[in-house]
Amino acid sequence: MAQELLNSETHQFEISDEHPDGIVTALDTSHLVIEDDTPVDNFQSAQQQRLLIDPLYATRPIALPFIAEADVGLFYKLKSDPVVPDMLLSLGVKRAEDFSQRENRTYFVWQFGKVPDVCIEIVSNQEGDELSISQKPQRKGKMRSKKDIYAQVGVPYYVVFDPLQQIQGDQDMGEALLRVWTISPTGYTELTLPSGVASVGELVWLDGIGLGLTLWQGAYEEETPRLWLRWCDQKGQVILTGAEGQAAERQRADQERQRADQEHQRAEQAQQRLEQERQRAEQAQQRADQERQRAEQAQQRLEQLEALMRTQGIDLNQFPEG
């Protein structure tokens, strides 16, 4: 890659006192189209791109810095058109601060010093050239598929997701919904099984990223459940979006509040039982006191009666006991 750049005729050489030999300090990219206002394919592609990007920034399952973007040109040669992945993930890099500079607004491999780690293509029709060249590009002289380009560039992981089953031929997805390749010295080697991934919940682990990919059926941004491609952990648990994380946090807070309310109710009930026991104990004490008072009163009456009888000259000893 570096040699290709050095051999390009579009280099801009800047000679300064510090570099009298004419060291290359900038590359002339003015001839490259980096922004053409081309819209995304369709609603599903747009939603799918958000679903792949949002969780990475909201949950940060991988360490910063990284760039996760959609529909950004990947420029790998000065004299070639870019390839534009539906989604790319590049680890260990970050965007430049000044977006007013043209070279900071897209992915120039020579600017970042590396290719993206993952490029994902979301199939929406039969003309995307994800795995093979369709007739229309062939008529224009295009000879390489996106897979061929990513392999040449050396992108470590290439992912194709075909949710609408648009390219299901034997030379394409072959009845699979998801296929993943990893780079090797001879090109791409498929990580997925020969049959690919066709069922919800199956996991493909990208060891160099520390994340997996899985198919997920559910509602995203609206009530209608659909099939989506999502990042996941090694257990297959999907990485939550910001909204899902907030909803899960609210649910945990509600559950904690309910547990706290239940504990409070149990404490109140225990306090009530203690109060009832205390009241019963007081009542029992009151009854005991009343019995003692009655016994004392009876004893007093008996003593008074005995005293009265003695004043009358009655000898109490003449009465038999009992």
From TrEMBL:
Pfam families: Uma2 (PF05685). The keyword Glycosyltransferase does not apply. Residues 243-301 are annotated as: Disordered. Residues 247-267 have a biased composition (Basic and acidic residues). PANTHER family: SLR1095 PROTEIN, SLR1612 PROTEIN. This is Uma2 family endonuclease. It comes from Petrachloros mirabilis ULC683. One of its GO terms (molecular function) is endonuclease activity. It comes from the Bacteria. InterPro entries: Nuclease_put_TT1808, Restrct_endonuc-II-like, Uma2. Keywords: Endonuclease, Hydrolase, Nuclease. The keyword tRNA-binding does not apply. Residues 38-166 form the Putative restriction endonuclease domain. Coiled coil: none annotated.
